[in-house]
Specification:
- The protein is of the alpha/beta class.
- The protein is 37% helix and 15% strand.
- It has 6 helices and 7 strands; from the N terminus they run βαβαββαβαβαβα.
- Helix 1 runs parallel beside helix 2 and helix 1 runs parallel beside helix 6.
- It is globular.
């Protein structure tokens, strides 16, 4: 967890953390989009930081970025090394715990992209949004909402606002993109966007 409010770095975004699924049972369309995202990040010279596995959407994105000549950093907890099949063709840090994995992913990234995934992806992005809610960081968070995958999460977030549990301003804490091209466009200009403070109770 960040130790306190961090000033926004006005430099262009050069390193992006991708949160996404590791399941090989995902819709093939999601896999193609993950590959397209990896290729697009490589083409823009943006480093891909991800969970280190060679399976599911995460493996597809990392492999595509690597094959397109992009820089990739994987961060894998030791206990998942066999389960998520380490992608050994890229630089990978193996750390003792999930907590250290998430902290390093945060530290090594200028922004976060959230593609379709399961409960692990959901846990990762909710923590990042919680930190943003508390003004512990102001890094961009971008959802790749292909086929409306994340609409139920957005509805839940709006529900917490309607019930008085979350300030309405928090709904501006993330961007939603329907295509890979939109994600890249947001990343290219994210450093120019004004930053809001979200800890409004």
């Amino acid at each position: 967890m960040p130790e306190g409010p961090l000033p926004h770095d006005l430099k262009p975004i050069r390193s992006v953390c991708l949160f996404c699924g590791s399941s090989d049972r995902a819709d093939p369309e999601y896999v193609v989009w993950a590959q397209d995202l990896g290729k697009a990040m490589a083409a823009e010279g943006i480093r891909l930081v991800y969970g280190g596995g060679g399976v599911g959407l995460m493996g597809a994105a990392a492999r595509a970025a690597h094959e397109a000549g992009g820089e990739v950093l994987g961060i894998m907890p030791l206990f998942l090394r066999s389960r998520e099949r380490l992608f050994e063709e890229v630089e990978t840090l193996v750390v003792p715990s999930m907590h250290q994995r998430k902290q390093l992913m945060y530290d090594e990234s200028d922004a976060f992209v959230v593609a379709p995934g399961g409960v692990g992806t959901l846990e990762e992005v909710v923590e990042i949004l919680s930190w943003k809610r508390l003004d512990l960081h102001d890094k961009p968070v971008i959802f790749l909402n292909q086929s409306g995958f994340w609409e139920s999460l957005f509805a839940l977030m709006r529900h917490t606002v309607d019930e008085g549990m979350t300030p309405a301003l928090f709904l501006e804490a993330w961007e939603v993109c329907d295509t890979v091209d939109e994600v890249i466009a947001v990343l290219k200009h994210a450093h120019e966007a004004p930053r809001l403070r979200h800890d409004r109770r």
